Amino acid sequence: MTSTKQGTLSRGDAGALIAFCIAGVAIAAYITVFSIIRIITLVSGTMIPVLVEFVDQPIEAPLGANGENITLELDRASLTVPSLPPVAIGAGVLGQITQIVTIVVVIGCLMLLARGILSGTVFSRRNTVLVMVAGVVGLIGFAAVRFFENMLANAAVSAVTDNALNNAVMSIEPFTFILAAFIISVIGTAFVIGDRLQRETEGLV
Question: What one-character DSSP code corresponds to residue 123?
Fold first, then answer.
């Protein structure tokens, strides 16, 4: 036996899980619609807004006394590009498709997990698999989205500056990535141990 009924949830807990599921559907729908609109904008090929990140990029801005220029370090900016090469558009479209798939898979797994918990089963092999799939897909998926968005941003900067500026932000924040992987590992381990202890307890009864 891989699962067992582990008690009945209170009305408050059940209500919270149902609200979580409703919020998950709303989030998935919003991001899907947003991504589809973004894909349409990219495919149109003209006047494409692109969010760009910069590294050590100083700029002069008239923000001092009497309108004097002061030096600022530009961290990110939105560029509207008249046109982009097909490779850049393809990267942007792939990024949006990856985002849709990642969100739908993660939220789908978590909703199935919530459904299992609502039925009274918290620790089981099925729930453990759902947690791990959601974590791994989310981790890899969002890293891939970041990669494709960086490709699009670098292409936009090259197109606007005629390759005179190289912002080249192509990396994933290592601390954030490692922290997310650690949290996923801890949660997955907790479900594995919970499932094993539950089955051992059944064997003693």
Answer: S
Highest mean pLDDT: which range of 50-54, 76-80, 93-97, 126-130: 93-97
**Distance of alpha carbon 168 from alpha carbon 101, whole angstroms:** 26
Q: What is the pTM of this model?
A: 0.78
Of the candidates 129, 148, 147, 142, the residue with the CA atom closest to the CA atom of residue 180: 142
Tokens of 135: 């974590």
How many other C-beta atoms can be found within 10 angstroms of the C-beta atom of residue 153?
Answer: 25
List 52's β-bridge partners, or say none: 77
- Residue 164 is predicted with a pLDDT of 65
CA 197 – CA 86 distance, rounded (Å)? 54
Locus of tokens 């998950």:
24
- pLDDT for position 2: 47
The mean per-residue pLDDT over the stretch 135-143 comes to: 90
Please enumerate in sequence order all residues whose Cβ is within 8 A of that of 187, keeping only pairs 6 or more positions apart, or say none: 131, 135
